Amino acid sequence: MTPETAVQTVANTLMLSAMYILVALGFALLMNILGILNFAHAAIYMMGGYICFELITLAGVNHWAALLIAAVSVGLLGFFIERFFFRPFLKNMNNIVIITLALIVILEATVNVTVGSFIRRIPSFVPGAFRFGNVSLSGDRIAAFVIGSLLLLAAFLFIRKTRTGMQMLAIAQDPEAAELQGIHTRRIFALTTAIGCALAGVSGSLMGAVLSLSPFMGDYMLVKAIEIVILAGIGSIGGVLIGGLILGALDASLPLFIGGSATDLIGLCIVIVLLLFRPQGLFGHEA
Amino acid sequence: MPNEYGPRTPYAFLCQDATVEGMRASLQYLKERYPNVKSVTYIIPDDGSVPYLQKLFTARASELGLKVSGVTKWAMTTQDYTPVITEALSSKPDSLAFANGWPQATGSMLRVAREMGFKGPVFGGNYDDAYQIREIAGKENSTDFFIHNLDLDSPEMTPMIKEVTKRVKAKYGDMNGMYIMGFFPWYELKQVFEAANTIDPTAVKTAWENMKSIDTLYGPGKMGGLKTYGINHTVCHPCPIVSLTNGEVKWVKWVDVYSP
């Protein structure tokens, strides 16, 4: 590996990690706070991308305004999902899993039928590429890196430093005890779901510009989100950073040495080995 | 792939240009359009075909005096192609060749290659739609790129293609290259059945193997493939090349391709 390739790979690692963290953040929030394995995160992420795309290309809305509207729209969708798809089944998490799988199919099929499966891309938020010495980075990736970092920091501070965030932590520890302490658990559940969905909407919009847009764009990214949350450990939002960096480093560097399908295989094997030594994840708590 | 088409499948015929023929056409055009290009790196999806295609592509590149700087394979689940292109460019090729894949992959790789500063020609050997590739890559990155595909709006299309296009548009209001590809083998089968004067598979097989020429939607064809595939069941015909130049899709030419 030449020094030039090595430096580009380090840059690729940071960019890829930021992209994965951005996608995983909303998923991690629901998993860590509500204990919900929201498989529909993939489809909600996709919806955010398509809403942003239609606003920019059909309605001529400014990119950043479209991003904000997409996030808010998908956040509102989150309130709806929590009320009618999660709340009735909270006592049985197996049902929630089935519901979220059904939601994937419903949302993906809806987009496939209405908009079609023609592969698209959201026009660049930050057009062009920038050179830093021997390293080239596209404007969209830099934007995803900056926004992903800010959102991760914001999520961490929100949960640790605000009253609502503390209430979320209390519910994560013991929902019944939290209710007895006077915490309005339903309201917090709804807010957490909305925030998680809004984060999915932001990541879908940015990834729709960095990568591409299709009704099934979230399927593989969901796998990455699950890997990151498991690596980080249940209950750890900050651990999403480390989990994202590990996965980003693997995916950015393994193709240089192995290439092909073996990169997926080796990457997952490394994650499994890490979990063998630390089953609760890197920052999770022992059961 | 040998288990799909070759001596072990005596009743299989390759009616239309596949990846190998498409890459032959693209390499021939590369030499003609970019005579200063001396090396190429192949980028191939890891779908099990890499060892097979690598051998064929390397042989053809060598025949044309091109050095193969490297072969980069990518996992079918790849979303971000930056590591793939980083690896491909590490061998400092003059050109990049995408063999197989789909528009999302081809467009993404083209975009990443250009964003990483690669200025050389990039080309594909499969039938990806150039308009979709441009959509994914972005107009600003869609230049010095060509691919083996049709441009149905070009006046250079054959009379048969124009006729099929006209009829499909009249009936369905929409048209894309898939309609041509669907029609392609049926048109050839018609000629083969007429030559054999029967639909008995063994007689049809024998008649087809012995045909000196056969008409195709892309122009006159002839049988070949014995050296390349181990069986003389390939209909070789002109292959279409389309380019992306300064963000515009342009018809380039028909390239005569023969798989020996």
Describe the structure in brief.
By secondary structure, chain A is an all-alpha fold. Chain A has eleven helices and two strands; from the N terminus they run ααααββααααααα.
CATH topology of chain A: ABC transporter involved in vitamin B12 uptake, BtuC
First-to-last CA distance of chain B: 16 Å
Largest two-chain interface: A-B, 41 and 31 residues
* CATH architectural group of chain A: Orthogonal Bundle
Major sheet description of chain B: 7 strands, mixed
- Count of separate DSSP helical elements of chain B: 9
Widest β-sheet, arrangement of strands of chain B: 2-1-3-4-5-9-10
In helices, the fraction of residues of chain A equals over 70%
Present the secondary structure layout.
The complex is a heterodimer of chains A (287) and B (260).
Chain A: H1 3-34, H2 41-57, H3 63-86, H4 93-114, E1 129-132, E2 135-138, H5 139-161, H6 163-173, H7 175-180, H8 185-210, H9 218-232, H10 239-257, H11 262-277
Antiparallel strand pairs in A: 1-2
Helix pairs in contact in A: 1-5, 1-8, 1-9, 1-10, 2-3, 2-4, 2-8, 2-9, 3-8, 5-6, 5-8, 6-8, 9-10, 10-11
Chain B: H1 19-33, E1 39-45, H2 50-63, E2 67-74, H3 82-89, E3 95-98, H4 103-115, E4 122-124, H5 130-137, E5 145-147, H6 159-172, H7 177-196, H8 201-210, E6 214-216, E7 219-224, H9 226-229, E8 234-236, E9 239-245, E10 248-255
Parallel strand pairs in B: 1-2, 1-3, 3-4, 4-5
Antiparallel strand pairs in B: 5-9, 6-7, 7-8, 9-10
Features:
heterodimer; A: 287 residues; mainly alpha; two-stranded antiparallel ribbon; 2 strands; B: 260 residues; alpha/beta; Rossmann fold; 41% helix; globular
Description:
The complex is a heterodimer of chains A (287) and B (260). Chain A has one domain (3-277): ABC transporter involved in vitamin B12 uptake, BtuC. Helices cover 74% and strands 3% of the residues of chain A. Chain A has helices spanning 3-34, 41-57, 63-86, 93-114, 139-161, 163-173, 175-180, 185-210, 218-232, 239-257, 262-277; strands spanning 129-132, 135-138. In chain A, helix 1 (3-34) packs antiparallel against helix 10, helix 2 packs across helix 8 and helix 9 packs across helix 10 (239-257). In chain A, 51% of the residues are buried. Chain B is α/β, with parallel strands linked by helices and 260 residues long. Chain B has two domains: 19-150 and 239-255, Response regulator (Rossmann fold, 3-Layer(aba) Sandwich); 159-236, no CATH class. Chain B has nine helices and ten strands. Chain B has helices at residues 19-33, 50-63, 82-89, 103-115, 130-137, 159-172, 177-196, 201-210, 226-229, and strands at residues 39-45, 67-74, 95-98, 122-124, 145-147, 214-216, 219-224, 234-236, 239-245, 248-255. In chain B, strand 1 (39-45), helix 2 (50-63) and strand 2 (67-74) form a beta-alpha-beta unit. The model of chain B has no long low-confidence stretch (mean pLDDT 91). The chains are: A mainly alpha (287), B alpha/beta (260). The A-B interface holds A 1-2, 4-5, 8-9, 12, 15-16, 19, 118-121, 123-124, 127-129, 131, 136-138, 210-212, 214, 220-221, 251-256, 259-264 and B 46, 50, 72-77, 79-80, 82-84, 86-87, 90, 103-104, 107-108, 111-112, 114-117, 132, 135-136, 138, 140.
